[in-house]
Design brief:
Elements: H1 2-15, E1 19-23, H2 32-37, E2 42-44, H3 49-61, E3 65-71, H4 72-78, H5 80-89, E4 95-99, H6 117-121, E5 128-130, H7 138-147, E6 152-155, E7 172-175, E8 182-187, H8 191-197, E9 203-208, H9 216-222, E10 226-234, H10 239-245, E11 252-258, H11 269-275, H12 280-290, H13 293-297, H14 302-305
Parallel strand pairs: 1-2, 1-3, 3-4, 4-6, 5-6, 8-9, 8-10, 10-11
Antiparallel strand pairs: 7-9
Helix pairs in contact: 1-7, 3-5, 8-12
């Protein structure tokens, strides 16, 4: 996903004179040629993430459209006050693009883990959040986001689904298990694991790469009375949105994601998926435990198994 982001941003800098890029050393070497061609619009402030956001706010106030890039914990957590004040408070709009996701660089330790980034951005008002599930989703999302006027956060990962699902982020029906089935909403790169985990279960699976604004209309269309959220960041981040959208209906909600307890382990991204129960086996345990006994024990029919779209 980072390679796709670099290529698309380099092209945008050449095609759109309003586009600017602000870095804090991370990925700077990948933009060397772009910086030489556009020295006034590609700015590397060094290891000063708070300054990076302040500079982006200033560029936005001059009429430029800044893209701000770093690892998620440096971009969102370390510089959150500057996002709140130098961007939001000043009505200065920017596009934040992170790498590292929740635990992509787990081998680098706790400093590089950021499962709470989307929850932090969610405390702000009016932000669009995209969590691509495949590298091929990145160019279109980045171009559309840069062309817009609002503030946005694109969360890139080394984890990926097997195929892209283009679109604006409205819920995409991937597997239809028929009437009365539970609805599972998979965000970003969690989709393949969710599909594997629910194979043969009475669970309809939908996908989105845009948790904010959440497609509440699509949710209301697809949901019956049981909803399962699978998000690749802090568990429960979108629970309030789903609960509000279905407030007029009796429903049960299971919110799966990265746990709040610090594991104090290194390992790989795949290890952390397993430890947090986000691998297919862990998700299946959670889903089958959540489903009512009648639904869990029911023999799947072809309608329940559904079709891939």
């Amino acid at each position: 996903m980072r390679d796709s982001f670099v290529d698309t941003t380099t092209t945008l800098l050449a095609q759109e004179p309003r586009t600017a890029l602000v870095l804090a050393d991370i990925s700077a070497a990948l933009f060397t040629a772009a910086a030489e061609r556009h020295p006034d619009r590609v700015l590397n402030v060094g290891i000063r993430e708070q300054l990076m956001l302040g500079v982006a706010g200033g560029l936005a106030l001059t009429g430029l459209r800044p893209i701000v890039h770093s690892y998620a914990p440096f971009l969102v957590e370390r510089a959150y006050e500057q996002i709140k004040l130098d961007l939001d408070h000043q009505a200065a709009r920017a596009v934040l693009v992170s790498i590292g996701a929740s635990f992509d660089r787990a081998s680098a330790g706790r400093t590089h883990l950021s499962p709470a980034d989307v929850a932090l951005v969610d405390t702000l008002s009016g932000w669009t959040v995209h969590v691509p599930g495949h590298p091929d989703e990145v160019p279109g999302l980045l171009r559309t986001t840069v062309a817009a006027d609002g503030s946005a956060y694109l969360r890139l990962s080394t984890l990926s689904n097997g195929r892209p699902y283009p679109g604006d982020g409205d819920l995409v029906l991937v597997r239809d298990a028929g009437a009365g089935a539970a609805l599972l909403v998979a965000v970003g790169p969690t989709l393949d694991a969710a599909l594997a985990a629910t194979e043969g279960l009475p669970v309809t699976v939908a996908y989105t790469h845009r948790p904010r604004p959440f497609d509440t209309a699509g949710l209301r269309t697809l949901a019956d009375n049981e909803v399962i959220l699978v998000e690749p960041y802090l568990a429960g981040t979108s629970a309030r949105v789903v609960a509000a959208a279905l407030a007029d209906r009796p429903h049960r909600l299971l919110a799966l994601g990265v746990g709040r307890e610090e594991l104090r382990r290194y390992g790989s991204a795949e290890d952390h998926l397993r430890w947090h129960g986000l691998d297919p086996a862990g998700l299946r345990r959670s889903v089958t435990g959540f489903l009512t006994p009648a639904a869990a024990d029911r023999t799947p029919t072809p309608a329940m198994l559904g079709q891939y779209v």
